[in-house]
Amino acid sequence: xxxxxxxxxxxxxxxxxxxxxxxxxxxxxxxxxxxxxxxxxxxxxxxxxxxxxxxxxxxxxxxxxxxxxxxxxxxxxxxxxxxxxxxxxxxxxxxxxxxxxxxxxxxxxxxxxxxxxxxxxxxxxxxxxxxxxxxxxxxxxxxxxxxxxxxxxxxxxxxxxxxxxxxxxxxxxxxxxxxxxxxxxxxxxxxxxxxxxxxxxxxxxxxxxxxxxxxxxxxxxxxxxxxxxxxxxxxxxxxxxxxxxxxxxxxxxxxxxxxxxxxxxxxxxxxxxxxxxxxxxxxxxxxxxxxxxxxxxxxxxxxxxxxxxxxxxxxxxxxxxxxxxxxxxxxxxxxxxxxxxxxxxxxxxxxxxxxxxxxxxxxxxxxxxxxxxxxxx
Length: 377
Hints:
- By secondary structure, this protein is of the alpha/beta class.
- It folds into 2 domains: 7-177 and 354-374, Rossmann fold (3-Layer(aba) Sandwich), CATH 3.40.50.2000; 185-349, Rossmann fold (3-Layer(aba) Sandwich), CATH 3.40.50.
- 41% of the residues lie in helices and 16% in strands.
- It is built from 15 helices and 13 strands.
- α1 (7-16) crosses α15, α2 (33-45) crosses α15 (354-374) and α11 crosses α14 (335-349).
- The radius of gyration is 22 Å and the shape is elongated.
- 45% of the residues are buried.
- Mean pLDDT is 94; it is low at 1-5.
């Protein structure tokens, strides 16, 4: 359902009714892209007129805190005590006059209306074991929710295809943002020195396979032959060791398996020849956006949501074609192609921001909080 009101009007109606939106911060216990999305949204909302109407349920004091936002403490979520947790969430909603509940990861109250931020449909699309408690929890959250925000049109289409009952419920799309920027020369030198990176390098995110499809990069990299002795590969979000079958493709290249902070990650993107991201499925594709924002050429695929993010600013390859990837690794080293990708990528990245996402998400949440309590289902 489209929202045509302004954020200020929606926030004012929520505030006048003395109602709040509860955000269960259960996922802040993990350092991941999910936590980054929610931290970025809260940072923006803390500076907006929505802040007085928010209550963050802080699980074991793991949530980031801003003085303009109200917090209540709660224990960590336990998959073995779902009903007890739902009762606790409901008691908090009742006490804090919550009109709309939204969780960072599939927790639920008993009766308060709920919206769901849908980050991806990876388990359903890729055939995970859906009897796993966390995916059972996701299904219950989808069945319970009255409204849905998806982070890409692709994710929304998959949501409706897999759960047809959601087609009749309120939905909206709000793309993620990024506050990443190209690192300066001093920062970049310090980063390379800290991690012993001495050669020009290709970067890959999530090298251990699965839907990230890292194997495609390594097979194509092997075709660079003797040129590998002058190159390095930086694998981020990846603790050693690299799988032996993938490591066999490295040859004489230097290999760096790194788990990085956001500041270090910006340096990694900024110093790379290119980011190789041949994913088979994404809910959004945040590394594609981050790479472009850091003036890093990106090689990726047209799978799922990625074209929504990359537009015409990246090199697309077939996710099953080693030939495509090999050619892209060669092309991206050509100065003219590289310069064009960097310029296009920076322009494309400017289309996405956390401020825009927070404004859109906040507006929808406030609207639904008012609407669902006027016309409860």
